[in-house]
Amino acid sequence: MSQPKIVVLGAGYAGLKTVKQLQKKNINAEIILVNKNDYHYESTQLHEVAAGTEPASKITFKVTDVLDSKKVTFIQDTVSLVKKDEKKVVLEKQGELSYDYLVIALGFESETFGIPGVNDFSKPLVNIKTAEECKKHLDETLANYQTTKNDADLSIVVCGAGFTSIEYLGEITNRIPKLASQLGFPQDKVKITCIEAMPTLLPMFSEKLGSYGIDVLKKRGVEFKVGTPIKEIKENTVVYEENGELKEINANTIIWTTGVKGSSVIGESGFSERRGRVMVESDLTVAEHPEIFMIGDVSAVMDNESGRPFPTTAQIALKQGESVADNLEAKLAGRPSEPFSFKPLGTVASIGNNVGIGNVMGKEVKGYIGSIMKKNIINKSLLEVGSTKTLLKKGRFDYYH
Q1: Catalytically annotated residue among 42, 48, 109, 167
Q2: Three-state SS for 293?
Q3: Distance between CA atoms of 396 and 378, rounded to whole angstroms?
Q4: For this structure, is 167 an active site residue?
Q5: pTM tops 0.85, yes or no
Q6: Is 75 helix (H, G, I), strand (E, B) or coil?
Q7: d(C-alpha 79, C-alpha 88), whole Å
Q8: Tell me: the pLDDT tens digits for 38-74?
Q9: Which domains does the chain possess?
């Protein structure tokens, strides 16, 4: 009798954590991990690569570095479709792959909200490739000022004021003085604008904490336009609405960080979804398909306290990975699966290397202490999805830098 086959799609926080937990359990099953890249990347640090304060190598590691090849087969390929009724996955290169149990953890994509010109004239920030493109474009555009003397080369617009946006602004405002010295452009002529459609900034924090973080960025020269929805992105121009009027900002660097959605594979595969996310059952399975688990950025888990789905964070993704591994072990042993439970430990945002804001287990932190907490969270994540060796090589120990 052949072993049951468990296929995990995606080697982000949720998928890789699932596989690591399954390895520990020594279950009697064939385990296959599919990922389009041969590396895992810490998506919570993409803003550092985009701003140029850290290289991509700092936030990535080889997937096979943390896999036991005797227990897990790794396939580097791109998922095209899930045929849930046939229990098959379609891969771009290797064709169809059958499964008995499927864990879908495919991650996120940039969300344009149907705004014209976003894909053509702005830079998204969603993976290693796009982060490196953002950094390359920023450096080249700032350097161009020496030749062009065009003020638009020194104008940077960040679209959206969510977590990624604020953390990216923290990094570039730290780096601009160094770039001005290296590339010879006038630092006082650099214009950084953040445009946000919502009426408030950093609503996930208290008003006092959010105001502290925004004030730090304002002191570094960032101008915020709040309650001003973006209507169109044109070449080197952002069109937004303010007090009922359409206005424009010229900028040769336009970074798009307004939000993300789950993988488009989810909708194309016929799952009932909203913005690429599926509202899962209590045990993280898909309705009418108890053999399919949906976790990470493609899942929606209801928070009974707030009446809204939990935000899709690395923290919940890691917990989902643990839960799925436990439930797969239970299913294989003929036991019922257990409901997923989650209590957030807190949220921390960095504003450059040595400033952070956060709420950790009910206690607010800010400034230097906040930055230490952020780095500790990064290190904890590296241990959970990587290894002690990964932590020692990639960890953030620059507490006094």
Answers
A1: 167
A2: strand
A3: 7
A4: yes
A5: yes
A6: strand
A7: 11
A8: 999 999 999 999 999 999 999 999 999 999 999 999 9
A9: 5-36+77-110+261-344 (3.50.50.100), 118-259 (3.50.50.60)
